[in-house]
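FIELD: query
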Amino acid sequence: MNFMFLNAAASTASKGGFFGSTWGMLVLIGGMFVLMYFLMIRPQNKQRKAEEEMRNNVEIGDDVVTIGGIVGKVVSTKDDALIIETGADRNKMKVTRWAVQTNLTKQAAQQEAAQKAKEAKQKAKEEKKKAKENKNEDK
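FIELD: result
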């Protein structure tokens, strides 16, 4: 994958070009670290923070899915544990907060808000189009 780039760097190194110097190689390695940070580490940290926030904001009455695939409704919350009620038999299970994968209640609310925003944007676009047509008709 990077063999052509390394081959080009090696050929310029033998000629005494920029990549042949120590500073050139340090700049190249530093650039690779910066690229790795912005492509891999930063998005992972943002996702981890969002998941942690979601787990800390679980409330009584929320429908949740655990990492094991168990779907239930939160009945009680404690510092590090949740008690969820599952199935028609209303079985209660104690799970830790880090085991919650998805908060279905919050997710449904976010999807509904996104849908309303999309509809409002579409409506505004149509009104703008009608106003433009009315303006053209007046001429």
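FIELD: remark
Residues 38 and 71 are 35 Å apart (CA to CA).
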